[in-house]
Design a protein that fits this description.
single chain, about 425 residues, alpha+beta, Nucleotidyltransferase, domain 5, SH3 type barrels, 8-stranded mixed sheet, 5-stranded antiparallel sheet, 11 helices
């Protein structure tokens, strides 16, 4: 089952998405044409004066590396996507640039003077690696709201309910009572300990919440004293002191004691951007519903759904029941728009070559998706993939399976222009 297809009328008014079969019939009868490949959108050749539009909820599960997106029509999940961020790549590129500049300053060669007191940061400033997560998510929120009649947005605002974790017996609000507070703690521990048993490292088994310093010996229920263990390790440890239990395994002991005090890097990145994303989403003038990671986990387990980012997104907020009508989400990878560096350097920081100012050759630029019909040669046939352009007009193409070269510009037909993202579809079709 594929994602539903977005539909516009000839005035570019968003209509209800339709199943892929109905979209194929409209295209075959020439009542519609392809408007956009990703997300796949068709445009009708007539106007719908009074469309019967159903409410659609766009649900977002922000993540450090991957953000889940889902569109829910009533209780039906009709579209899903996973947006892969490039925050770590941006951080690495900035660190590389900083190191190169620093080396040039030390050698007193061509350099850019350091700047300290001549720059100010606006209120709410985020580092580029974190800001890219917000901007990528907003880009896709704006795209989807152009093609789908979205009536509301749901966002997972906080990953963990810290108040419920510090005092599991807290009362006064329904979501902090009973089993939901336990879901908050368990979700936090799964993230912190990498979904592995802290003692033996086993994965993909039921885990039990384990006290590092046993309660019978004065240990507390604070989250810094909790870890995850498989049933066998939990029973073997019992109420032993962890130093006695791991006396013959000093490496594991030091790792656990060190990791118990460490914060979550990914969780910190997500928590740093969620409030900014929430404020930017409110600026869309759509009602924004918020939820916690614990509630998302509770809904996910209660509905017995597979572990996928886009299915996590569909479980954000208040959910009674869900009927998943798609199992092939769109996989979106942020690639950026290239860089502004006009001079590439060698490993010592000296100029190696200069790049041309022109990015488009023969109507194509790197990243464009094209269909190439090659008449002869080793790769004779029809190929679909992404281009790497050259000034000579002899390009390279990267398909889903291999690289194709050479590809001359006269054999290429554009399918989807470069928009800063790469696209694929999940192969885990149910």
């Amino acid at each position: 089952m594929s994602n539903f297809v977005f539909v516009l009328d000839s005035n570019k008014q968003a209509l209800n998405p339709v199943p892929p079969g109905q979209a194929r019939r409209l295209l075959k009868l020439k009542q519609a044409a392809v408007y956009r490949r990703y997300p796949f959108t068709i445009i009708l050749n007539y106007v719908v004066p009074t469309p019967d539009v159903e409410p659609h909820q766009l649900k977002i599960d922000p993540g450090s590396k991957t953000t889940g997106l889902a569109i829910v029509q009533g209780d039906k999940v009709i579209w899903g996507a996973e947006l892969m961020h490039r925050g770590q790549q941006i951080k690495n590129d900035l660190e590389s640039r900083r190191a190169t500049r620093r080396n040039r300053r030390n050698r007193k060669t061509r350099y850019r003077q350091p700047r300290f007191l001549n720059r100010t940061r606006p209120t709410g400033w985020l580092p580029p690696s974190l800001n890219s997560r917000v901007e990528n998510t907003l880009t896709w929120v704006n795209r989807i709201t152009r093609y789908v009649p979205i009536t509301g947005i749901s966002q997972e605002l906080v990953k963990f309910d810290l108040q419920a974790m510090q005092n599991p017996e807290i009362s006064g609000k329904e979501y902090q009572q009973g089993e939901l507070a336990g879901y908050e703690v368990r979700e936090y521990l799964l993230e912190k300990w990498g979904r592995k048993c802290a003692y033996c490292g086993v994965e993909n088994v039921p885990f039990e919440v384990e006290h590092i310093h046993p309660k019978s010996r004065g240990g507390s229920d604070r989250v810094s004293n909790l870890t995850l263990a498989c049933h066998d390790c939990n029973q073997a440890k019992g109420n032993k002191d962890i130093k006695d239990f791991l006396a013959k395994k000093p490496d594991i002991l030091s790792r656990i004691l060190r990791q118990a005090k460490q914060p979550l890097k990914d969780a910190a990145a997500v928590n740093s951007t969620r409030s900014c994303l929430f404020n930017r989403l409110k600026a869309t003038n759509l009602p924004v519903e918020t939820g916690t990671g614990g509630r998302t986990k509770y809904n996910h387990v209660r509905l017995n759904l597979p572990k996928e980012h886009w299915l996590d997104a569909s479980c954000v907020g208040i959910v009674e029941n869900l009927q998943v009508l798609t199992s092939q989400p769109l996989l979106i990878t942020a690639k950026g728009w290239g860089n502004r560096q006009m001079c590439t350097t060698n490993k010592y920081g000296f100029p190696a070559k200069h790049r041309t100012r022109c990015k488009t050759f023969f109507g194509f630029q790197t990243g464009d998706m094209v269909r190439a019909t090659l008449p002869k040669g080793k790769f004779a046939g029809i190929h679909v993939g992404r281009l790497t352009v050259r000034e000579s007009g002899v390009f390279e193409m990267k398909t889903a399976h291999s690289k194709v070269s050479p590809v001359r510009h006269k054999y290429c037909q554009s399918i989807h222009r470069n928009d800063g993202y790469m696209y694929a579809f999940s192969t885990n079709v149910q």
